[in-house]
Amino acid sequence: MLKHSLICFALVPVLAGCSTGQSGGTSALPSFISSPSPRIPFVAALGAGAYYLYKDNWTLEEIQTGDDKFRITLKKNMLRQDGDSEGDMLFKRRAGEIVTELGYDGYRIMEYSEGIESAALGPQRVAHGVIQCYKGAATAK
Prior knowledge:
Organism: Sulfuricella denitrificans (strain DSM 22764 / NBRC 105220 / skB26)
Strand content: 25-35%
Strand order of the largest sheet: 1-2-4-3
Signal peptide: 1-16
Protein name: Lipoprotein
CATH architecture of the largest domain: 2-Layer Sandwich
Keywords: Signal
Number of domains: 2
Number of helices: 4
């Protein structure tokens, strides 16, 4: 609910910049559509920045590296200060979802690491891991 309120709040400048353009004309289009305005890029950048700031803390990428192996990569939103310790929990949650979606009985974590990588805008917290899914009883290796 809070996220939706913040997105709506970010759209207020866009809506405030709209006018019906009907001061003597017959156009029903907002003025920023019917005539270019220099404030459109600013408002668009402001909206994009607000969205990035309040979107999910982590982005997730997964790649199937074998018949039953999956590499899961998590990257934290650099502009958010909360949720630093969520990587392990989100990794295990996604691993469980993969098992359920594909009909496996369980998974084994083959490797897992967390750290900080350099990025264009500054350091970014990341988590990488590989799981191996199995059917039937787990066999020890």
